[in-house]
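Researcher: Batch entry, complex prediction.
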Amino acid sequence: MAADFKTAQPVEYYRRFLKEDVRPDGRELGEIRHTTLNIGSITTAEGSALVKLGNTTVICGIKAELCNPTAEEPKKGFVVPNVDLPPLCSPRFRPGPPSEQAQVVSQLMADIIENSGVVALEDLCIVEGKLCWVLYCDMMCLDYDGNVVDTCVISLLAALKNVLLPEVTVNEETGSPVTDVEKKLPLNIRKCPVATTFGVFDDHYLFTDPTNEEECLATGVLTVVTTEDNKICCMHKPGGTALSESRLQDCINRALTRAEEVRKLIDETINSVER
Amino acid sequence: MAGLEIISDQGYRIDGRRSSELRKVCARMGVFTQADGSAYIEQGNTKALATVYGPHEVRKGRGKIQHDRAVVNCQFSMATFSTGERKSRPKGDRRSQEMSMHLRQTFEAVIVTELFPRSQIDIYVQILQADGGNYCACVNAATLAVIDAGIPMKDYVCACTAGFIQDSPLLDISYVEESAGAPFLTVAMMPKSEQIVLLEMNSRLHADNMEKVLDLATQGCKDVFAVLDRHVRDHVSESHALMTAS
Amino acid sequence: MIFCSDTPHLPEVAVTILSTNMAAPRVCVPGERLFSTADCEAGPGTYVHHGYIYSCLAGYMHKRKTEGKELSIVEVIRQKEDAVPRIGSIVTAKVTSVSGRMCKCAITCVERTTLREPFRGLIRKEDVRATEKDRVEMYKCFRPGDIVLARVLSLGDANCYLLSTAENELGVVLALSEAGAQMVPVSWCDMQCPKTGSKEFRKVAKVQLQQE
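Model: Structure tokens for the complex:
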């Protein structure tokens, strides 16, 4: 009969768990789901990563193309993120143009890339004013069980660390680029941003890493993105229940510890992959 | 790539296979939690995954409701990073729509739709890495996903390609062999009843050679069926063992 | 392989038949030929083609005898059950809107299976009660947000299943009062709020005490 109670009164059902300081899936309020990482499985992409945060699965593929830099910024290349939430990942997404949520997450990714300086755009420039790299980072959610932002950030970071770009020189006579497929160099990753999302319920309870059901019931959401020198590079709180300063500080501290764990996991996985 | 022999003198292809050898097939059912049924398949380097939702209420387009059967809706999509050149339009271009329509027609013939009047079954297929035989990988993945979802089907649907290069029929064409320009045939069939559900051919093939290539393709489908069947039986026994153990 | 080996998900509904009939159950897959129609009758999970019974699900084959029929029935059982409301089945629905002639609801469960996606249902004025059908006032029977037990009458015409609560055991099982507290049933036509003590009109279901 628990399943009936859950469908009939989901809020009440959830409240009863939170009173005992535990959540329906058995986690504590500050516990984050098990994270697994699989790097470099898509060979057609320059860099790829598949991340599973509990059940939420996101795959990120990075393709590099050559293009001309803009006149305003002749020394900078481009990094273009795109998040796709297709109908196959959850029944709540319908076929059609990208939903509002997908566009918001894409924009958030673009902000994180710019603010954190994960890749210096000057590194992507080959010939000033003439030739540069553009990195298309396409993140696709395969299974949506809440907290897609954190998963996307981890997959993006892991895929960027996996990218190998061929060396490009410009042929002086013809002026056209010559790609040397034999020599491949990894990207210079300056900073490693990691995101942690929190949910607020009933103006009172604060929990990390919400699942899909918890996201639907939460009254507010907060995402904190930190880099390794204990700097906060992005905070995203789209309305919802108000939070006091002390709670905000708790969230930031939790985000900092979580970010360390994730960075270690990514480095371990990369080192274990034979190239 | 001029001068690259598709078949070497000893009869080996570029990836080391013989002419009537299938690529290695790895499959996994029930990979996702949100979907009613899901499956992931790897045929050589081609990676495809399929998810099935349904049967559920028909949402968009009230006109689509059939009073005596379920509506099957398929969507085929290739990831932007799945091909050598970045695919700027993952879905919505003509080729994807054609593939979606083929998938829909294939599965409408096989799923017992009369059991679910006025509802809709969604099949979403995604290619993560394309290396030839995209449609076949999709069909095989979708079959496993529909079985995983528990939607009744008359039989499996297995698909395979066969081509005709340098005067010999080849089974399970990879992308390199496809781009060599030789004719190839895509066949989807129901292996137990040996009925062909879909047949598609590219380029020109002499009528005399047609029978050889078709036979090879149907044999390939039966080989694929053997692999998928084993996976399904293992999966059913595993989930039963888990259930009775708890 | 991209996906690491996950354990398959445990199904929600436990099928007791499987555990009692443990004589090496036979796994069958769609398209597998089971018996001819001369030996057995086709049950759920199978279909008939050219005089033979084939399986259409991947699961365990189960053969059972029923009284009154000479041939035993062959069926294929899977742990996870797909539910679509069928005529005569009891469903649990949540009322979404109430008007003078009918009330619309979202069907959340069919018998014991919870649906992933709700179907739409409709309860017409004449299907609320068995007696005094024309003197029914919809606002005194249902309010938006109530959970009701109903029986599927027919598939309806305009995309909604037609439901009926015209039995003693059908009707409102859970309702929140205007003050927001869960109400206690008083009689077949009203419920009382424990916080304020006021009574509100509903068509209440007579719930039998079940053994869990």
